Amino acid sequence: MKYRFDAVIIGGGASGLMCAIAAKKKNPSLEIAIIEKNDRVGKKLLSTGNGRCNLTNDNVGVDRYVGSADKLLSEVIKKYNTEKLIEYFESLGLQTVRDSEGRYYPMSRQASTVLDVLRFNCDELGVNFYCGETIRNVKKQKSFVIKTGQNEFEANKLVVAAGSKAAPKLGGNGSAADILKNLGHSFAPFTPALCPVKVSSDVLKPLKGLRANASVTLYKGSKPVKTESGEVQFNEDNLSGICVFDLSLFTSGDNMIAVDLTPDISEKELSNILLSNKARFSKQSADNIFTGILQKRLAQAVLKSAGVKDFSRACTSLSESELKAAAQSAKQLIFKVIGNEGFDRAQACRGGVPGNEINYETLQSRVTKNLYICGEAIDVCGECGGYNLHFAFAGGIIAGEHL
């Protein structure tokens, strides 16, 4: 079948749905279609925020993102900051709540509520959905011609809001890259981000399954790159947890991660506690020197890293230099970075169209007239905490308002 529309949006995720709504609210007479490869729209949206959909954050700012589109990002945030985005959602019928860390969720705390609100608004406004359609070819002639496995679409304007390669089980495949390159754009390859970081260490495997509140610092050589705090999960060959996910945005060659297992006290304070424990637990085995401070397997990992490998020794046999080394290891347990886990475990990706190829005001391509780009197709990737969804929603509104 052949169809003709004023605008076609490729991608029925957060950005694509919001783009369609904004376009129809601005100009109800527009005939708009969303083409989605999954059997329903918003599939990936349902998994965000552990199924609760963290929409945005009070701390949205350029410093929360990486990529090559700072100027574009700054304009998007200026037009739709947190307050304005929440107001826009309220105008669509979504009620939100804010947690103590500034993160916003739907009042129901269910991602399905956000998707329902977006779908219902699309239905009320007359947006056309074509789901289960895989893009085969996109060409720019006098207008855009989009061919799928089943149909052919023609449109005066085209929006590429297709997602990245993250979470392929939810439909991520990076098709935006081929579409946009064929339309004249350069494209930084997608790489997995917001995911576990693969590391190597002699002490890692025994820690498998443990979790600990810690401070983690990514180093490039001897230079600290970024520090985050939160729960760290130790796995057989990687470190995980939200704080580690945020570090994954910055990993490259020659990296290591230092884990501070006692972030609330200084190294000197810890050394004094261990000295007291040496007397207090004098007859106990050496791996009890961290009693009341660290879980036993963590204590053993710290001692091994400090050069104490015979845990059968009594605490009283530990020298002052060994205690100082143990305190230092607890404050900086080192893991060499091998790389990030793959797309299967990534929540987002780095990569996309560089910002200088997109008009900052309208999100229209500077390369191909009447082509608009939003969401994960742009080289912008934010930290955990609602930052990526904020950019997707805000960018979708801006692109939609200019169709």
> What is the beta-strand fraction?
25-35%
Uncertain stretches of 5 or more adjacent residues: none
Radius of gyration: 25 Å
Q: Label the structural class.
A: alpha+beta
Summarize model confidence as the mean pLDDT.
Answer: 95
The biggest beta sheet reads: 7 strands, mixed
**C-alpha end-to-end distance:** 25 Å
User: What percentage of residues falls in helices of 4 or more residues?
Assistant: 25-40%
Plain-language structure description:
- With 403 residues, the protein is an alpha+beta fold.
- Helix content is 30%, strand content 27%.
- It is built from 11 helices and 20 strands.
- The strands form 5 sheets. Strands 1, 2, 7, 8, 9, 10 and 19 form a 7-stranded mixed sheet that branches. A 6-stranded antiparallel barrel has the order 12-15-14-13-16-17. A 3-stranded antiparallel sheet has the order 3-6-5.
- The protein is elongated, with a radius of gyration of 25 Å.
- The two termini are 25 Å apart.
Which descriptors would you attach to this protein?
single chain, 403 residues, alpha+beta, 7-stranded mixed beta sheet, 6-stranded antiparallel beta barrel, 11 helices, 20 strands, 30% helix
Quick summary of this structure?
The protein has helices at 14-26, 48-51, 70-79, 82-92, 111-125, 175-182, 242-248, 267-280, 296-305, 320-331, 387-401, and strands at residues 2-10, 32-36, 56-57, 65-67, 96-98, 103-106, 128-131, 135-140, 144-148, 152-160, 188-193, 197-200, 211-220, 223-234, 238-240, 255-260, 333-340, 348-352, 371-373, 380-382.
